[in-house]
Structure formats: C-alpha cells, structure tokens
Amino acid sequence: MKELDWDKGGGLLPAVVQDAGSGAVLMLGYMNKEALAATQATGRVTFWSRSKGRLWTKGETSGHFLNLRQIAVDCDGDTLLILAEPSGPACHLGTATCWGEDPPRSAAQQNAFLGKLEQVIAQRIAERPPGSYTAKLLDEGTRRIAQKVGEEGLELALAGVAQSDAEIIGEAADLLYHTLLLLKVKGLSLSQVVAELEARHAQRGA
Predict the structure, then answer these.
(1) Residue 134 covered by a domain
(2) Is 51 found in the same domain as 131?
(3) Is 200 a member of any domain?
(4) Can you list the pairs that 60-68 forms with residues at least 24 positions away whose Cβ atoms lie under 8 Å?
(5) Which of 9, 20, 13 lies closest to 90 in space, CA to CA?
(6) CB-based burial, 7-16: b 16+ in 10 Å, e otherwise
(7) Looking at the 3D structure of the chain, how many domains does it have?
(8) For the chain, how many helices (H) and strands (E)?
(9) What is the pLDDT of residue 174?
(10) Residue 205 pLDDT level (bands cut at 50, 70, 90)
C-alpha cells in the first residue's frame, strides 16, 4: 500500500469492487487514505463519498454490506481492485450490481458460479432448512447421495445418446450439483478436483 499514488487523483483512488465468489463487477467507488484504512480495519468496504463529503460504508443504511476479502493494487498504483462478499444487492436500486441484475459475464465468471453453489451447499449442510432438497438428501445419508451421483451420471449418458441439447444440459447440471454435494459431505472441494485436473494436464504436457 506504500506504492499507492494518492497525488494523481487529488487524494482519491478509484476502487473497483468485484464479487469474490462469482467474479461479477459490483460497483465503482472512490477511496482516500482514511477510507482505505477504515476498510482494512473493519472488514467492510468503505468509500469517500464525493456527494456527502464524508466516509461512507457501503450498506450503512441498507444493511447490504460488502465484506472485504482482498485488496489488490494495479501496476501504476492509482487504482484499487476490491474483492468482497456482498450481503445483499450492491446497487442502491436493488439490483445485484450497478450494471443491472445480470450484467454481461465472461465464461470464467459464469463458471465461478460453481464456487457460489458450493457455498450454498455448505450453508444447507449447516442449517438443514425445512423443505430443502439438499437437507432431505443429507438426512438420507452419504450412501444415498453417492447413489444419486450414479443415477445422474447414467441419465446424462442416456441423454447424450438420444435426447435434445437442452435435456443434456439439464442432466449435466443435475450431475454437477450432486457431485458437489458428495464432495462437500466428504470434506472435499471442487478446487481440489480442479487442482487434480491441472496436475494431470501439466504431466501430460511435459
């Protein structure tokens, strides 16, 4: 943070806020030294409001805070990238981002939803909400969850032979979901699976 160029922007740096889970760009704000210090101290993203003329913690009125996960500085030291976990809509209009509810996303950002789904599954495991399909499977035990993975894998294979693209996608989604659930129940994660694939790719590419 000593490398930040505060003079270039008259004491303010633009801060792009990105969802730490999905990768979606949530909003743009401005920080001075005090706002950055408050963000680091409290763990909640805080800006310098140019209209209010004071420090402003996102969510101080709505309760939709941006919980800090990481801060990165660009190559020129004059722009901040804030990775945060939103506790509600990031936009004052009630949408998920300041570019609407579903702004354009890259393929990588779309794939990042799997990480968010992992978080939802972990929450279901912890809370077991009534009426939840995940909670029902958890009550039936690991053996039943593993059985569902096998069933969904077979259904995907059959769809690949004789069904439409939409049905193939639906069955693939079912398989991915149940696979993530099985991994989480066994104390494993999607990132470990990705790491294994990366290691295999590196070995075969050597």
Answers:
(1) yes
(2) no
(3) yes
(4) 62/88, 62/89, 62/92, 63/87, 63/88, 64/88, 64/89, 64/90, 66/17, 66/26, 66/90, 67/43, 68/39, 68/40, 68/43, 68/44
(5) 20
(6) eeeeebbebb
(7) 2
(8) 7, 6
(9) 97
(10) low
129 assigned to some structural domain? yes
Burial of 141 (0-12, 13-18, 19+ CB in 10 A): exposed
Task: For the chain, give the longest Cα–Cα distance.
Answer: 64
Residue with tokens 């990768």: 23
Residue 170 domain-assigned (yes or no): yes
Say how far apart CA 197 and CA 162 lie, in whole Å. 29
Q: Is 100 helix (H, G, I), strand (E, B) or coil?
A: strand
Q: Write out the two tokens for 99.
A: 């570019």
CATH code at position 151: 1.10.287.1080
The mean pLDDT of the chain is: 91
Range of the domain at 166: 112-205
> Using one digit for the tens of pLDDT, what is the confidence trace for 92-140?
899 989 988 776 666 666 677 788 889 899 999 999 999 999 999 999 9
Asked whether the whole model's pTM tops 0.90, one would answer no
> What is the full DSSP assignment across 19-81?
ETTT--EEEEEEE-HHHHHHHHHHSB-EEEETTTTEEEETTTTTS--EEEEEEEE-TTSS-EE
